[in-house]
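Q: What would this chain look like folded?
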Amino acid sequence: MKINRVNITNYKSMLSSGDIYIDHDIYALIGQNNTGKSTLLDAIACVFPGERRNVEFRDFHDRSKDVVIEIEFDRVTDSYIVEHMLEETLDKHAKAISKMKIEKKSKKDIEKKKASQATSLNKKLDEIKAKYEIDDDKMILRLHVPSNGGGIGKKSLETATRGRIISEADVKKILPALKVIPAIRNPHNESTAGSNSYMKDLIQMLDDSIQTSIKVGNRKINYNELNRIIAKESNKRCAKLSKAITEKYAQAIGNDDFEINISSEVNIGKGTSYTTKLLDRVTNLESDMMNCGTGYQSMIILSILETYVELGGAKDGYILIIEEPEVYLHPNLQRKMIETLMKLSKNNQVLFSTHSAVTISKLRKDQIGLVVKEHGKAHIEGIDVKKVILELGIRPDDILMKKGVILVEGPDDRDIIDMLIGKIDKKAAEDINIVYSGSCSNIKFYANAEKLLNTVYDVPLLIIRDADSKTEEEQQKVLFEDISKIMNETKTRSRKEIEDSIFIVGKHSLESLFMQKKILADITDIDEDICASVVETYNKVYDYMCDTSITEQQFAQTYQPKYFFEKNLDSFGYSDEKEEVRQKWDNSYYNKWDNAIKKVYKDDYEERINEFRLVREKVNKYTCDRARNKKNYMIELLKDKKLESLKKGNFNKLVTRLEKYVEETIH
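A: My prediction, written as structure tokens:
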């Protein structure tokens, strides 16, 4: 579940905000001091029950009018509802089926039971959807806080369509977990696992789930089980002692009308104090977190939060609100901070306010809202790229100190292009600067492009851009139009020069170039004919899904080539502890591909599904093994290949374009 839209009436500086659309991954608020950046973040927190944020009388912009905060949530899917609210029902269903199998019930009876369970589950789903007025995977909640003369009336949480009041307990059941890091940090509370701290929650989480090395029988136990074992032994001791003392007491008073009971409460956690220290591995000196600089304190707090989120096991991610994450940080640490936030946003929704050019440089323009305050009233505007670059001082990279510049999207792209240029001309690799700016739709890219396009320096430029879910022609047109908007009126380059400087990688991204029967056969030791069949299946399904009505984001989550080659390693990593969540994601991936293959191949889909799974599993083993050894599988596959060999396959267009660029730039 993600926040899709917020509308605020009469809260703090926002008298009437209008609809504010929030990116599902990451969203930043920029603006001058006291314009109202925190108003939106506070308003969201007010709607979540259990948060320490409430609407107070001083928050009313106009004290004669009510405060209304409306949030539209998206992706409230059936699977989200089932996992979030009906997990107990699923467990009961699974146990019932398991019992029938143990009792050796007939297959017919088991199937009948499963059908009955499915009907029951669907009925509960429909009841939940009706209760919360969920329609088309969307749910709208409205917090209504009436003005009552000189004070506040009784607040209520309502559905948007019928205005049905929902209890805070019921709202809490369906909403994802919200975590807030305020601008005023509390490093002491966090570092000592104090009240309501993420560190305390993290330790409790570890107590519940992480096994100790202590064995009972042949099984390792977790911290809470250890606590229960000690408590049980302590209670035995207390019972024995109670009995002995009771006997003595009865003798002393001359009757046995009374009983002495001694009890114990064992809580290892309460008897444990925590400190957080920073060890300098170079000097071997250790410092308490409270003695570290405020910048490092901020990074440690964020690291605690990141660990909490990673180990939390939230079924559909957290919503994270972070005020001014760059506070006290040197620009280099600010870059580390935004990288952390981007990493968090892969499985969670991150909202933050900022004054830093560094922290928004990797965001797309639709992921940034500019808060403007006029005549005491705040509202949020979409951003003008040139204005933001100018006002926040986003600087381009130092790109003009080479003979040529190639702009790419990511570090993998940079490494691959660098290797290919080295194969073309080793000297050229030293004279050409390959700069990655993140997505070609983010602010950093525009800063670099503007510098190159509007400068008097005649530096040969090549922009290599992923096609994503568009055709090469469509993506080239979109990118050219975006670049045209940031060019000065007195252009130093013609339209044709700019169009010629754009190279689009087909089939979504660079990974698609590795989708070749020879490469797959080399990785897997599977017959080339089977690998050729898998390549054909992949390409046909890819083209088919491109023509459907699914969104770009939905397409990217399943059908981009990256996820054929790896099990979502960027989100879940490759550690053994994450195998279960990786497998769960993979099962969903295969279900979607199976259904798509059935639609494309109506006759021989079973064989194609089996081949697809067989090849992908072996490919994934190869890529995961390289990842564990901190190697880039794409570089490993390319490093020993000759240019002529690459030009016989999918790499032909890219290599040919790079050869032309090297010739124009160096020779």
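The chain is about 50% helix and 15% strand.
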